């Protein structure tokens, strides 16, 4: 009877240990899955922010180029006007 009880206890302990390992494994897998989901979400958010920054940077670059063109045009007009003023001064 004692041997029977000891065998049953050993068997039950083995089952309990196996269940504990399975439960811990399941919990770890769930934690890992949650972490992966959170990482994917954060990556998506960062990608969106990066896209917004790139778009804003492109818009600013375009504005700078437009401003540069306007500045060049104004400088040319100023040179033309200065030249005309000199011609008028020479005529006087």
Strand content: under 5%
Give a quick account of the main beta sheet: strands, pairing sense, barrel closure: none
Outline type: rod-shaped
Radius of gyration: 39 Å
Summed up, the helix count is 1
Helix coverage percent of residues?
over 70%
Protein name: Angiopoietin-2-like
Organism: Notechis scutatus
Domain Angiopoietin-1/2/4: 63-92
InterPro entries: ANG-1/2/4
Overview of this protein structure:
This is Angiopoietin-2-like. Pfam families: ANG-1 (PF25443). Residues 63-92 form the Angiopoietin-1/2/4 domain. By secondary structure, the protein is an all-alpha fold. It is built from one helix and no strands. The protein has one helix spanning 2-91. The protein starts with a helix and ends with a helix.
Q: What is the structure about, briefly put?
A:
The chain is an all-alpha fold and 92 residues long.
Ordered list of secondary-structure elements with their pairings:
Layout: H1 2-91
Question: Can you give keywords for this protein?
Answer:
92 residues, mainly alpha, 1 helix, 0% strand, Angiopoietin-2-like, ANG-1/2/4
């Amino acid at each position: 009877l004692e041997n029977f009880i000891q065998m049953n206890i050993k068997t039950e302990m083995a089952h309990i240990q196996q269940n504990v390992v399975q439960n811990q494994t399941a919990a770890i897998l769930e934690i890992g899955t949650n972490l992966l989901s959170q990482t994917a979400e954060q990556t998506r958010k960062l990608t969106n922010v990066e896209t917004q920054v790139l778009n804003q940077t492109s818009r600013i670059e375009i504005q700078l180029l437009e401003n540069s063109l306007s500045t060049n045009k104004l400088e040319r007009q100023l040179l033309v006007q200065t030249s005309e003023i000199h011609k008028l001064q020479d005529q006087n």
